[in-house]
Amino acid sequence: MSAEPIKIKEKKPGQRACDEKDAKGKLCVGHLKRWYTPSEDVVQQVGKDVEVYRCERCHTLYRPVPEDRSSAGLRYEKRPVNILGDFARRGPH
Ligand SMILES: [Zn+2]
To answer: Mean pLDDT in each 10-residue stretch from start to end of the chain (93 residues)?
Structure first.
């Protein structure tokens, strides 16, 4: 029986290097590669259509952060105010 859950870390948007630390506390910084052939156990855990990444060095598994709401809230734009609005109305005398 090996029902132990597989360790899958969350990959932050834009993250390309493994941030797993070894026993000495040193960052791995291995390259995260898309893993196109995840094992069945992994698929069961992350879901079918989820992209899985794997560190080249320590083979830690990563999946993208499910929902990135952090940047969505910042998307409000200031509407440009037309300062010339009043002056533009002057007509010919
Ligand atoms: Zn690694």
So the answer is: 81 94 94 95 90 96 76 56 61 62
Please give the distance, rounded to the nearest whole angstrom, from the Cα atom of residue 43 to the centre of ligand 1: 20
CA of 22 relative to ligand 1 center, distance in Å? 9
**Exposed, middle or buried by CB within 10 Å (0-12, 13-18, 19+), for 28?**
middle
Domain ranges of the chain: 1-66
- CA-to-CA distance for 15 and 81, rounded, in angstroms? 38
Q: How far is the CA of 32 from the centre of ligand 1 (A)?
A: 8
AA identity, residue 38 = P
Predicted TM-score (pTM) of this structure: 0.65
